[in-house]
Automatic annotation (TrEMBL):
InterPro entries: FAD/NAD-bd_sf. Gene3D superfamilies: FAD/NAD(P)-binding domain. This is NAD(P)/FAD-dependent oxidoreductase. The lineage of its organism: Bacteria, Bacillati, Actinomycetota, Actinomycetes, Propionibacteriales. PANTHER family: DEHYDROGENASE-RELATED, PHYTOENE DEHYDROGENASE. It comes from Aeromicrobium camelliae. Coiled coil: none annotated. Transmembrane segments: none annotated.
């Protein structure tokens, strides 16, 4: 029987393991931490009974993929839950904007900017299933839906600062700025619109759901199905060398590129090792988990009903903050993402104490304390927020990497989203999962299609391994 060892139990490592196990491969997953899940871990970090997602909290690209259609994770306990409003963006004086599942409902509240929102996101939403099928694969392939992908690419290739000219009001421009900031790139850089266009369209097509019972439910469901297929998962097992896990017919590495080069060592061709060690990571994140009495008192009403709230003010303010962070400096007013998962999933609360998830974009490896800056940004749009805080749990950029070594310097998206790496991550090749050593593959979020709990990096890597085992190219 073919034997596979998967190093790392993040969503991609587990997706790779599950894909292989379903094909009759004997699979063993080795996880260095004491808890499975990588970026999908959830814990009671503040108050007993209040459940916090430790990294990934919302999963717009996990609902309908080749992987999710292949495996019935609902049978193993995974339930998706949606907030009333997918994301919102408060501005000063109680103003703001919000994204509903409906393009029309979203456009209707944007006034004069509604037409521009409808023109971009309406056609993309209608065609997004085909578009997603193509961009959830390596970029170097013959597209299944070339015309649909071309329209998506026309908007995605533009700098965010250029695409934002489609809107003239503070509300319309800010609503786009919030999703564009997920790229952690300067708004004037090429393809800095890509992540925002993808996530904005996904909000209308699939919504931004959470997993009932915390993101850990995603990992738990996958492990349950892996074990049903006869696979095994071990925690507390660290792997530093390929020698420690051989012999194995297939090795899947759910690790950062430089870590993969260290594990494989001299067996890896030098040109590939150089490419992996030169792989670029982006800015970091500083995360604060809040336990809050009765939630955040946003002055913008729609933000009180939104699963995600983008906090940073106007488009220009966020653009400045992202530029400063990418130059390695900490802005006075950073972009802050606030998660209110409890609105879709009340099981995470304890009475009137709710979990509020917040992180700021900070320079890579930032050693300072961003707690005050995060709280000040939220307080700006929700006066009285500080008075409702019952408890906090902090995790700095350095601690993010200690908690999950894939997050180098606190980079939770596992790689800078510059133009080259968006198209050719982690290196320029037709099969970006291979590492130049027979049977050894990289399957982390450093491979296409990138960050998220969709599992498609692991699924794609496993498919590559299975094709090669069958003698296909």
């Amino acid at each position: 029987m073919t034997k596979a060892v998967v190093v790392g139990s993040g969503p991609n490592g587990l997706a790779a393991a599950l894909t292989l196990a379903a094909e009759g491969v004997e699979v063993e997953v080795l996880e260095a931490a004491d808890t499975i899940g990588g970026g999908t871990r959830s814990s009671e970090l503040t108050v007993p009974g209040v459940l916090h997602d430790e990294c990934s909290g919302f999963h717009p690209l996990a609902v309908d993929t080749a992987f999710s259609r292949r495996f019935d994770l609902a049978r193993h306990g995974l339930r998706w839950r949606w907030p009333q409003i997918q994301y919102a963006h408060p501005l000063d004086d109680g103003r703001g904007a919000a994204a509903w599942r409906s393009v029309e409902d979203t456009a209707a509240q944007l006034g004069s900017d509604g037409r521009g929102w409808r023109q971009i996101f309406g056609p993309l939403t209608e065609r997004f299933d085909g578009i997603a099928e193509d961009f959830l694969r390596p970029m170097l392939h013959v597209p299944a839906h070339p015309i649909k992908l071309a329209r998506f690419g026309a908007f995605s290739l533009a700098p965010a600062s250029l695409l934002a000219r489609r809107w003239s009001t503070d509300e319309g421009r800010a609503l786009f700025a919030g999703v564009a900031a997920h790229a952690l790139r300067p708004f004037g850089s090429p393809v800095s619109s890509a992540i925002g266009v993808a996530l904005g369209t996904a909000a209308h097509r699939y919504g931004w759901p959470v997993a009932e019972g915390g993101s850990r439910s995603i990992a738990s469901a996958m492990v349950s199905l892996i074990e049903e297929f006869g696979g095994k998962v071990q925690t507390g097992v660290s792997v530093s060398s390929l020698q420690e896990i051989l012999p194995a017919d297939i090795v899947m590495l759910d690790v950062a590129p430089a870590a993969a080069a260290r594990i494989v060592g001299d067996r890896m061709p030098s040109r590939i090792a150089r490419a992996l060690t030169r792989y670029r990571h982006g800015p970091g994140t500083f995360k604060v988990e809040f336990a809050v009495h009765e939630g955040v008192p946003w002055t913008h009403e729609e933000s009180r009903h939104a699963g995600t709230v983008h906090v940073g003010g106007t488009f220009e303010e966020i653009a400045t903050a992202e530029a400063v962070v990418n130059r390695g400096r900490m802005p006075d007013r950073p972009f802050v993402l606030v998660g209110q998962q409890f609105l879709a999933d009340p099981t995470r609360t304890a009475g009137d104490i709710v979990p509020v998830y917040a992180y700021a974009h900070v320079p890579s490896g930032y050693t300072g304390d961003a707690t005050g800056a995060i709280e000040a940004q939220i307080e700006r749009f929700a006066p009285g927020f500080r008075d409702r805080i019952v408890a906090r749990h902090l995790r700095s950029a350095i601690e993010m990497e200690q908690h999950n070594p894939n997050y180098v310097g606190g980079d939770v998206v596992t790689g800078a989203n510059d133009a080259r790496q968006l198209i050719f991550r982690p290196r320029v090749t037709l099969d970006p999962y291979t590492l130049g050593v027979p049977g050894v593959y990289l399957c982390s979020a450093a491979t296409p299609p990138g960050a998220g709990a969709h599992g498609m990096c692991g699924y794609n890597a496993a498919q590559s391994a299975l094709r090669r085992r069958r003698g296909e190219q």
